[in-house]
Amino acid sequence: MAIGASGSGAAFTYAANQGGFIPEVFSKLLQAKFYSSSVLPAISNTDYEGEISGQGDKVHIRTVPAVSIADYTGTVSYADLTTSTVELLIDQAKSYAFKIDDVLSAQGDIDMLAEASKDAAEQMRIAVETDVLANVVTGATTIGAQTTITSSNILASILDIAKELDELNIPEEGRFIVLPPSMISLLKQSELRQAYLTGDATSPLRNGQVGTVDRFKVFQSNLLYTPSTGTDATYTHVLAGHPKAITFASQFTNTETVRLESTFGDGVRGLKVYGRKVVTPDCLAVGKWKV
């Protein structure tokens, strides 16, 4: 006879004589998995993504030519326009690979291939974004001193970065700052309170944008570079500036399914190549902050 129930009506435990059995039910649903929001498309220049085909490619980016101003004395002299180039090397690559066993596929409870592929794409994005956010730090013109951030000084610290960018004539339109969740919380507790929040209801879900401060769009990310060793250990490297500072280009060059030889199943693998570079150092500032 039934002696008890487990869960929410999904399975019952029975006992017969000295033995028993527990019916097993395999759900056709998967437990939800949550990923970090992507901020990279919002804080970088991705104009050159369509021009790469594989690892080792070089993208030659021309700079805007400089035009000189002269006093007018009755005659005009025409200067030649000169421009330099910046090379973006597609020298980074990451891959994933997993197998789908025929027996697992035959059970048919879940489209495991589709779900695993979605997860692979998200994990790839997180891995690439983590790498990019860490490596662009050294390319910034303005790198601040180590600062302990509180609700009392976070607003002033942000305004100090704004001043540094103003003095370098960086455009106000499109400026960003990326903060970790701990500092977003402090910002909400600051003297500014929640008055800075925008009305864009879709942004927090789409790309981590949570509001604006001064002329900065404020983004939240768990992927900012925080060294575990060295002189900057435990200090999160907050990024602020203009999207023209960072050029990023990436592409999945291979995504394929192959029949495996050593087992009965299919192998799925993907290769993503990318390059990242700070092409306008004045447009990027770094704050070494911790709470």
Structural summary, described in words:
- With 291 residues, the chain is an alpha+beta fold.
- The protein has 6 helices and 14 strands.
- It has one domain.
- It has a 6-stranded mixed sheet with strand order 7-14-11-8-10-9.
- The longest helix is centred in the middle third of the chain and has 24 residues, at 112-135.
- The radius of gyration is 26 Å and the shape is flat.
- The model is unreliable at 1-17 and 195-206 (pLDDT under 50).
Number of domains: 1
Helix content: 10-25%
What share of residues are in beta strands? 25-35%
Tally of strands: 14
Query: What is the spatial order of strands in the main beta sheet?
Result: 7-14-11-8-10-9
Unreliable sequence segments: 1-17, 195-206
How many helices?
A: 6
Q: Could you describe the largest sheet, including whether it forms a barrel? A: 6 strands, mixed
Shape: flat
What's the SSE pattern?
EEEHEEEHHEHEHHEEEEEE
Task: Give Rg in angstroms.
Answer: 26 Å
Layout of helices and strands:
Blueprint: E1 2-6, E2 11-16, E3 19-21, H1 40-43, E4 58-62, E5 85-89, E6 92-101, H2 102-107, H3 112-135, E7 142-148, H4 154-167, E8 176-179, H5 181-189, H6 203-207, E9 209-213, E10 216-220, E11 236-241, E12 246-259, E13 265-278, E14 284-290
Parallel strand pairs: 7-14, 8-10
Antiparallel strand pairs: 1-2, 2-3, 4-5, 6-13, 8-11, 9-10, 11-14, 12-13
